[in-house]
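Support reply, case 0932

Customer input (verbatim):
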Amino acid sequence: MTLLWMALIACWLAAFATCVGYRKRRHRLIVRDQLARLCDMHWRVFEDRVAQAFRFRGYAVERACGADADDGLDLVLRKHGMTTLVQCRHWQHRNVDVKDVREMHHLMKYHHASAVKIVACGDYTEDAWKFVAGKPFELIYGETLLAMLSDAQLPVDASVVPFRAPSSPPPMHHRPRTAAQT
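Our regenerated output:
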């Protein structure tokens, strides 16, 4: 009788483990598909979704324009008197490298910003993760990005919001360079 109970318990434990494994695999597939859909959308729609998610978190959001927009600066966030610079990396098959993170560090100093957030569909290199240690940087990627969009109730499906070019982006206020910055 004891042997029968042990066999029954073993079967239940095996069934439970299989169920847990299935749920984890299913979750990973869902995340992978949602990230693929983010990568498939137009880069401007991706930036707009990120901007909307930050607005949902209480930030005033400006789109960066001018020369710095070409240097990787995409959005400027303001909240509680602090300025945060945002770079959106809409790359599908490449991790964000430490070189890109360093560029944002230089832009943070140039604009006298308080912090930097880099948002990527993919991941970051190990050197990039090491570089931001102890700095006011937030590297947002993968499930964190999906959770951010989900919290703001923004669909991941690229077909939901078509790309529309803005009529005129709001100007970004640049601080003049001092002699020490040149």
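We compared this against your earlier run and they match. Two observations from our side: The domain at 35-157 is CATH 3.40.1350.10 (Trna Endonuclease; Chain: A, domain 1). The longest helix spans residues 2-40. Please reopen the case if you see a mismatch on your end.
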